[in-house]
Amino acid sequence: IAALRKKYPQLAITFHEQEPGESIPKLVRRDVDLIVINDWENAPLALPDGLTKAPLFDDIADIALPPGHRFASARHVKLSQLSGEEWIAWPGGSICHDFLLHTLRKSGHEPRITHTAGEYATQLALVAAGLGACILPRLGRGLIPPGVSVVPTEPALRRHVYAAWRTQTTRKSAIRAAVEELQTAGKVLAGSKASNRSKN
Fold this sequence. Notes:
Layout: H1 2-7, H2 20-28, E1 34-40, E2 51-65, E3 86-89, H3 95-106, E4 112-116, H4 120-128, E5 134-137, E6 149-151, E7 157-166, H5 173-199
Parallel strand pairs: 3-4
Antiparallel strand pairs: 1-7, 2-5, 2-6, 2-7
């Protein structure tokens, strides 16, 4: 957003964080011109007719495990191995909460969600306190509290991040400029994440 404002100072840009269930209808109603949304590889979102999307990058999610967990030093873990685990999740009705329910049920067990929090830092604090495990996307991941182990899943939990807009506005220069800038930022971010993984 900062790069876009610098390059195109005439654009009026505002940012609001919302769930897809809020932002997609706003896009359809013309309340907003462009949204950045994500969905999970095994639970894709269906966009209404009249919308176009462009991929920005993919994000991988791992499992954050509490201190002393039996899989804390594993190279990877299958969700089916975490049957009976207590989970810390996003609040009910959010895309990430619904994804956790969907994914764990597909792996063969009913999830026990014992705590909910809308911020990763809070979820990780609960994990560090030994209150459960959480699914932790790599995008925007902050510091991991001492004692918490972050273990990749097998197969990987992958989510797609993309921009979406009304198809009839595709030729608008503001839409094209914003999508191009978001794609550039996505490439930089994806490259940075790959570099960090290779160093670890």
